[in-house]
Amino acid sequence: MDKIPMTAKGFASLETELKFRQQEERPRIIAAIQEARAHGDLSENAEYAAAKEAQSMNEGRIAELEDKITRAEIIDVAKLTGSTIKFGATVKLVDEDTEEHKTYQIVGDVEADVKLGRVSLSSPIARALIGRTVGDRVEVNTPGGGKSYEVVDVAFV
């Protein structure tokens, strides 16, 4: 069973979602199923079918979350140091073509969200950055074409 690297914040997020799905969503769906059953003929009951579908989706997500939590390898980013980019690093870059500044934190696949500046360890940009230090130039092949960045800062926050 492969471990899934993630930050403590990412792990807490999974636990919060799991708790919500088990303690709030599951009882709500069960109540909806009971209400739909009370309406009579289940073969032509769209409310019943929708509630059973919601139950199936919720139980599937619960199983997925439990699996990820079981396999989680929590890495405390605050305890990491150094100037070399690795998992958990917050990296400031300058696009060499546009002079635009970007900041990314390298996190596990489960908690990646580019809009929030968290890129997956397996993403092209993270793979290109791993092992680099401040001042290095990095070439990244992205879906939008090749990009060239300079590493401006590396921090572990």
Helix/strand structural class: alpha/beta
Distance between the termini: 29 Å
DSSP strand (E) fraction?
A: 25-35%
Number of helices: 3
Helix/strand order = EHHEEEEHEE
Gross morphology? elongated
Using brief descriptors, characterize the structure shown.
single chain, 3 helices, alpha/beta, two-stranded parallel ribbon, 157 residues, five-stranded mixed beta sheet
List the helices and strands and how they pair.
Blueprint: E1 4-7, H1 8-37, H2 46-71, E2 72-75, E3 90-95, E4 101-107, E5 118-120, H3 124-129, E6 137-142, E7 145-155
Parallel strand pairs: 1-2, 4-5
Antiparallel strand pairs: 3-4, 3-7, 6-7
Describe the structure.
The protein contains 3 helices and 7 strands; from the N terminus they run E-H-H-E-E-E-E-H-E-E. The chain has a 5-stranded mixed β-sheet. A two-stranded parallel ribbon has the order 1-2. A hairpin with a 5-residue loop joins strand 3 and strand 4.
In short:
The protein has 157 residues and is an alpha/beta fold. The protein has helices at residues 8-37, 46-71, 124-129; strands at 4-7, 72-75, 90-95, 101-107, 118-120, 137-142, 145-155.
